[in-house]
Design brief:
Layout (H helix, E strand, L loop, with lengths): L1 H11 L12 H31 L1 H20 L6 H30 L4
């Protein structure tokens, strides 16, 4: 809609005067969100592989299920993927991974003590 208005305005400008976009915020935000999603996906894959190797498949599966449920709930409640919502998701996932590490460490300590 804005592009059409700019095109209409260009036709009415005197000869020699040009109108150019200097900074288009929607393009910048789209690129930033897409770049973040790519980085987020790469980080998630790395974390899942490391967790699966270090702590087992159960923790990795729980992490994947948490992410899927988070995205489903975000879609249901109309929460868009923005920098703040992605940042909150990253913080929540970090807390979950930290919690899983503590639980796995507790299991390892109990196993070393001879408990079932």
């Amino acid at each position: 809609m804005i592009d059409q208005a700019i095109d209409g305005l260009m036709e009415r400008l005197p000869i020699g005067i040009e109108l150019q976009r200097v900074h288009w915020m929607s393009d910048v935000v789209d690129k930033a969100v897409n770049d973040f999603l790519i980085s987020f996906g790469e980080a998630l894959l790395i974390v899942l592989v490391i967790i699966a190797l270090a702590m087992g498949i159960i923790v990795g599966t729980a992490l994947i299920a948490t992410i899927l449920v988070s995205f489903i709930l975000m879609a249901m409640f109309g929460i868009d993927l923005q920098r703040m919502s992605l940042g909150a998701l990253v913080i929540a996932l970090r807390m979950m991974v930290d919690n899983a590490i503590v639980v796995a460490d507790g299991v390892a300590v109990r196993l070393q003590k001879g408990m079932d």
